Amino acid sequence: MTSKNEDINIIYTSIMREKHTILSEYTECSGNFAQIMEHIKKEIINNFQDPPSIYRTNINYGKYSIFLIKHKKLYILIMFPTTKINNTEIIFSLLYCLYEKLKSKKEINLENISKMRAYSLKDFSLVIKEQITKFNSNSESFIPYLKYSNEFILYEPFEDRNFEVDIQLPILSNIQVHSEKKKENDEIIKEKDENEISFRKSYNSILTQDSFKDDILKQEQNEKFIDENQIDIIKKDLDDNDNDNEMILKEKTFEFDETKKRKKKRIIFLIIFLLVLAGLLTGLFLVFK
User: Fold this and answer.
1) N or C: fewer beta carbons within 10 Å in the chain?
2) Phi, psi of 69 (to 5 degrees)
3) Does the residue 73 lie in any domain?
4) Rounded Cα–Cα distance for residues 154 and 57 (Å)
5) Which CATH number covers residue 18?
6) What kind and span of H or E run contains 34?
7) Which tens digits make up the pLDDT trace of 230-275?
8) Which residues contact 123 (CB under 8 A, 6 or more apart)?
């Protein structure tokens, strides 16, 4: 059995559906994992010969091992650096566990999983993280999940189980660079924190000096005086603006009244004109009748 002392460093976990669409994933490393998963799904898994609809399998991918379970259109897989494993079934137990956690969620319908959008289960990454932590602590606690072994048929698409896919994507180097950068960033952050602490101590020491306190007090009083003067200036400007606005309003009101008067005169003139025209037409009609 795999024990808690055996080193199985899971570097990537993914929940996918058909057409290599990732629904959820979890990793603590950097790397082009999404591209790798697409490549594996498109070039390898999709080319399996007559696979069952529900199965489990594992693939050697360069220097990495990939354990996978498939339930109809759902794929759950993990990736880790290839290492000696005494019992591969215990690895599958982690995948069975994630499968059961998915089934138990009311908002997830595995029958309609083909309609789910990419990363629609991104919150499930917290569940993945929790279960991986438990698995790394004590993998034997996952033995009860082996009850699913009968449901997921062991599928071996390659006669040679040491089959390795030619990989051109240097994931491992990315992870190493990530680790070195993380260490460098941690040192920079630590140095910044130390400098900030030193600055605060110096600043607090200066604040305790009476002369500095007096200077600060005078500066605050000057700033207050300046602020009061600025407030008076702003108030004056606002009053002037109010007066200007009042004059503009009066002018606009006068213009509006004049426009109304002109329109009213035009309407009266038009009515008179129409009445005269109607009278003329009536007269002509009577004359020629």
Assistant:
1) C
2) -125, 145
3) yes
4) 6
5) 3.30.450.50
6) helix 33-39
7) 666 666 666 666 666 667 677 767 777 788 788 888 888 889 988 8
8) 24
